[in-house]
Description:
elongated
Amino acid sequence: MLRVFPSAVIENLQPLIDGGRYPIKRVTGEDLVVEADIFKEGHDVAAAALKWRMVGETCWHETPMKLIDNDRWRGACTLYENAIYEYTVEAWIDAFTGWQHEFSTKFKAGVTPLRSEALEGAALIEEAAKRAHDPHDASRLCEITEAVRTKLPAEVDQLAHSGELEVLMATYPDRAGATQWAPPPRVVVDRVEARTAAWYEFFPRSAEGSGERGSKLRDCLPRIEYAKAMGFNVIYFPPIHPIGTTNRKGRNNSVISQPDDPGVPYAIGNRHLNCPNGGGHKDIDPALGTLEDFAWLEEEVRKRGLEIALDFAINCSPDHPYVAEHPEWFYARPDGTIKFAENPPKKYEDIYPLNFRCRDWLELWAEMKSIILFWVERGVRIFRVDNPHTKPVPFWEYLISGVRDEFPDTIFLSEAFTRPKMMKVLAKAGFNQSYTYFTWRNYKQELIDYFSELTQTEMREYFRGNLWPNTPDILPPILQNGGRPAFMIRAVLAATLSSVYGIYSGFELCENAALPGREEYLDSEKYQFKERDWDAPGNIKEFITSLNTIRRENRALQFYDNLRFYNADNDAIMFYGKTTPARENIIFVVVNLDPYRR
């Protein structure tokens, strides 16, 4: 019995994440460059093609791969659709190129006769004529076949290397027994905003900067115009849902609240309020307005060329409707009561965490996905996810893939300040962007080491770092102690080391009052309305505006993995740069990392 076996060996395919278990990431209009080791036994010549298609398509697109060196091959294509693609490499014996080389070598060496060799070549060309689907090409190949059979060796050698024949033979190769990498790996192609964006976070209830009363959604436009004027294009809101009253926290995380304390937005849910969807994650806090108010604001934001990003915090206050309707979704103590959240030594008595491994986990998971879809259907396409590392990774694969199957332009940001391997696997599982350790990296070598890992190792294929110098939860020591220069340094680093970054409101005002001995804000607006003078002396609004203008006008800063570091003798001076693929735009950045030396 005739057995067919692979004609070539394909090894070490790159990029490939965990053997193809997880997809790589690109954005629309970005190139996919694929390399592989391709070889076979003996002296036969190999040929290879990079093949790609959108998942669900039956036909492959392909482009030839080129030999780089030492059996290493490379091919590239450009991915234009916001979709999921698959790609592979196919290799086969290039008998015609092998014959070309053999005939030419013998002819130049004066070997005679070459009758048998000419007939071998004619047979290869004749077979190509049979494969040709274009009648003109088939006819021309037949003509060349006859010429190779009858001409003298010098004329055969000339014909063999004619551009016409080489193109025709490359168009109709013999791929019988071709080897193909399987199963084909996948690549998630996001819209450009997944790679290039500037985020501005503020609490809608503090939009007007009053410490005595809260603002509403319809009061937020001036703050949105303010962020746009600085050059930000994503407006990120912490949770805007109803807030529970049971165990409500007071100012500075006090366990005793006053009647006028607004509560922590992350203690989500209040079934006692008059809300159209029960007072949970699918409602707006009545203190902020209504779903109609949100729809109005979302439309106004889009008119201005910006987007709203919502916080997806899977927390429930004791008053959340889930607690009454689905107590089995929560963690129970031996006495039957529900456990509140803890991150020792911190306690969150106003929050109940959900148990994603409960008996009815399928129902719970489906409900969580429905929350995202509820807001997606109302125009939201960006979600910052709170503490995803405390939920099972398969849950995120289920939720993110389920949402993106319907709405592929949805973007998820992972807020996981946790162990490196968990941060990596969350990115692999589907998160388009990830928080990083940048917030705590201050010194030259640690910055170089960390960002070299993020942008110049395999991590660049799946992990996009969204850099935040501050958050509502984190006021790092360098900002507490370094004064205005520290805020400027951290802004430059965040805006230029990555193509996507964000600041939490107050950063531009250089707010640095912290709880003693803590990385937390004093009088944090997580617990109260925040009073601010948006034009306070010493602000760096113009400086941030200039940074965002530079980012917008220089394409090199809009790419993520093109970061390269250069030598600077001074330990306080960091020197790095970015360039576009065509090198028509090159940016060099020099930063003094020491806020105390000018």
